[in-house]
Design a protein that fits this description.
The chain is 29% helix and 19% strand. It is α/β, with parallel strands linked by helices. It has a domain at 136-166 and 216-330: Dihydrodipicolinate Reductase, domain 2, CATH 3.30.360. The protein has a ten-stranded mixed beta sheet with strand order 14-13-12-11-7-10-9-8-15-16, covered by helices on one side. The chain has a six-stranded parallel beta sheet with strand order 3-2-1-4-5-6, with helices on both faces. Strand 1 (9-14), helix 1 (19-28) and strand 2 form a beta-alpha-beta unit. It binds nicotinamide-adenine-dinucleotide.
């Protein structure tokens, strides 16, 4: 949508509670943006947001689009993961800019569609909600890797303490059923996912993350935040293999902890013609030796490590990066850059003033790679050969179901032509 010089960006939020509340406030803080509608399937959460911004509210984003598409320029997608692509694709089809939470999508196929939609409509400003990518230490880390400050890159690592007991993983499907509260449209919450009975406190409100039908497990939840620096710096994409070691994946949930190993093709930044990537979650940690950190030094949680021939850079999702050379910590001699406000930057991009970095073409590549780890957890101990172009596991035909799901009627994510 072409915006006039004196116009304000008219923004609507899909998912107004949880992170959506933060996304609405962050966007509204820009002097050139205003919230014009909110959508949430939970009427309590919706009411709080519509009161805050004094705007109309909808339970169903399809109705919001039908009523207001002419007066919405841009959309925030802050729902559980399984709804991201359905909502974002619809918005882009209607020529709206999109800020979509991480992971970009619930499935690899969906990420590919958002990337295609973004290529098809380059005038739309897109951004994934990995706000720490805009922080100064991450921008400096990217620059340092690109400028050869670590030498040639030998390996990359990432790790998280999640799920940390904050949400269930590794358990069997819940039994029984609870009454659906009057304030919740359970059918709309399920959206594209298969119907299952409502259970109070089990899924709605943050806990959905570890269920295959709704989330992407700890790797989906955290890896787009944690791994963005090396992926952006080295333009990594399309893993060739994946192997997941875990022991409690179930039909319904991701495993409580896992080690994921992938191989990427090498490029001008890497020491060899392939680059190993190892991911740990559920509080499993890499060793100090692997990372090139001093023996006995505590390894901080929720970081990535980029290990090069001339040192290791540890990049946190908090506000710091640390540099080690010859297993001794040295000053991180930061290139001269500034941090950004992720929301402000996206609003500016909607006006064509800047170009986002975590746009959908980049964030789809990162999300696809991380979600391959989620696919791999269905085949513990097996090395899967990945054909990224065709989006299929060459040596496990059954894996097709995990890289593209089925959609309930009325909630289809349409392929981008
Ligand atoms: N960038 C970050 O740091 C960060 C932090 C937390 C969450 N997130 C991401 O934000 C998204 C939401 O996570 P959360 O923790 O806020 O979850 P949540 O379950 O707490 O909140 C989701 C909100 O969306 C609403 N919702 C659910 N389905 C909907 C639908 N079909 N249409 C409209 N509204 C719907 C829910 O009622 C709820 O208000 C996820 O993708 C998550 O990964 C990002």
């Amino acid at each position: 949508m072409a915006l006039g010089k004196n116009e304000r960006l008219q923004v609507a939020g899909i998912g107004s509670g949880g992170k959506g509340w933060v996304d609405l406030a962050g966007t509204n803080a820009h002097e050139d943006a205003e919230i014009v509608a909110c959508c949430d399937v939970d009427s309590n959460r919706l009411l709080k947001a519509t009161n805050e911004y004094d705007v109309p509210g909808y339970a169903d984003f399809r109705e919001m689009f039908a009523d207001m598409s002419d007066s919405i320029d841009a959309i925030l997608v802050s729902t559980p993961d399984h709804v991201h692509a359905v909502a974002a694709l619809k918005a882009m089809d209607l020529d709206m800019h999109v800020y979509c939470q991480k992971p970009l999508t619930w499935s690899i196929w969906e990420a590919r569609q958002l990337s295609l939609a973004s290529k098809k409509k380059p005038h739309l400003a897109t951004q994934m909600g990995t706000q720490s990518a805009s922080k100064v230490h991450k921008r400096q880390s990217v620059k340092m890797i690109q400028e050869g400050g670590l030498g040639a890159i030998k390996a990359i690592y990432g790790w998280t303490d999640r799920p940390t007991g904050w949400w269930p993983q590794g358990s069997e499907r819940l039994t029984g059923e609870d009454p659906i509260p009057d304030t919740l449209s359970w059918d709309l919450w399920l959206g594209p996912a298969p119907v299952r009975p409502f259970k109070a406190g089990a899924y709605h409100g943050f806990k959905w993350r570890g269920f295959h039908d709704f989330g992407c497990g700890a790797i989906g939840d955290m890896a787009c935040h944690i791994m963005d620096t090396p992926f952006y710096a080295m333009d990594l994409a399309d893993p060739m293999t994946v192997r997941v070691d875990c022991d409690d994946v179930t039909e319904d949930q991701f495993p409580s902890k896992q080690v994921v190993q992938m191989t990427f093709a090498g490029n001008q930044f890497t020491e060899r013609d392939s680059l190993p990537f190892t991911w740990y979650d559920g509080k499993i940690l890499p060793t100090n030796e692997e990372l090139g950190m001093p023996e006995g030094e505590e390894i901080p949680q929720n970081c990535c490590a980029v290990v090069g021939t001339e040192g290791t850079l540890i990049v946190s999702t908090d506000m710091w990066s640390r540099l080690f050379r010859n297993r001794v910590e040295v000053d991180f001699d930061e290139p001269d850059l500034e941090g950004r406000d992720h929301y402000k930057f996206w609003v500016d991009a909607c006006f064509g003033r800047v170009k986002t970095e975590t746009h959908f073409e980049f964030s789809a590549k990162l999300t696809e790679a991380m979600l391959l780890g989620a696919v791999g957890s269905h085949y513990p101990g097996s090395t899967l050969l990945w054909d990224a172009e065709e989006m299929r596991v060459l040596n496990r035909y059954s894996a097709k179901q995990y890289s593209k799901g089925d959609y309930r009627e009325g909630f289809e994510a349409k392929p981008v032509q």
